[in-house]
Specification:
Blueprint lengths: L1 H28 L3 H16 L3 H6 L2 H7 L8 H20 L3 H21 L7 H12 L7 H13 L3 H14 L3 H15 L3 H6 L4 H11 L4
Protein name: Bacterial transcriptional activator domain-containing protein
InterPro entries: DUF6483 (IPR045507)
Pfam families: DUF6483 (PF20092)
């Protein structure tokens, strides 16, 4: 029952946020980027009690901690911030400021991936579309380890095992650690228990699982 309540609540919250975002998109279509940024700051203050300046002064990890006083992210505040940071990134992109847009996009993606992991969100939710749009926008950038770790978990959660494996080995190449290596072993252990059909749906196979396990050995 609690999961269904959470699902319905997140759906209603997303609809409310969508209404506010439509106003922002309207401003952006008319190239009123500064007005959009001002409106975003007002919306952040209204719905979260925080300003854009303060939110963006925090590291991703510290921001998540501040939104998780009981160890779990506050859904309301987290989703408002993730959604509005995404729009703020789009406004800066319109202004030709790629540094500021990248910073907002990564912070938004970080929060959104954490929320999708923690909450029971239906597979038809537009939040997945938002996450995929952010991932696409960041395709040409080298993402920091803490974002890639959440992407690894996200792709496995969605059954995209081939993509998850790509992220895993990117992490091991760029940011090798015993923790990531252990997560890799646990990942393949979970995949070994999947049926051939499940793996095929995730662009994977039992043969590739075994190959992945063997590849992990060179990182030991």
């Amino acid at each position: 029952m609690k999961k269904m309540i959470n699902k319905d609540y997140i759906l209603r919250l997303a609809e409310q946020i969508g209404y506010e975002l439509s106003i922002l998109i309207g401003l952006r279509k008319r190239n009123r980027y500064q007005d959009e940024l001002l409106t975003i700051d007002n919306l952040l203050l209204k719905y979260t009690g925080l300003t854009s300046r303060f939110i963006n002064s925090l590291s991703d990890e510290l921001l998540l901690q501040s939104l998780s006083p009981l160890g779990k992210m506050n859904v309301d505040t987290g989703l408002w911030i993730a959604s509005l940071l995404k729009e703020e990134g789009a406004a800066y992109e319109g202004l030709g400021n790629s540094n500021e847009s990248y910073y907002r996009y990564t912070k938004s993606l970080y929060l959104l991936l954490e929320l999708l992991h923690q909450e029971h969100v239906g597979t038809d939710s537009t939040l997945y579309d938002d996450a995929d749009e952010l991932i696409q926008k960041l395709t040409d950038y080298a993402l920091p380890a803490h974002i890639q770790q959440k992407l690894f978990r996200y792709y496995e959660q969605r059954g995209m095992y081939g993509r998850a494996e790509n992220i895993l080995f990117d992490l091991l190449e760029q940011y090798p650690s015993a923790k990531v290596l252990q997560e890799g072993h646990e990942f393949y252990q979970r995949l070994q228990k999947k049926s051939s059909i499940d793996l095929q749906l995730g662009d994977f196979s039992h043969e590739e699982v075994q190959e992945g396990i063997e590849q992990l050995q060179r990182f030991n």
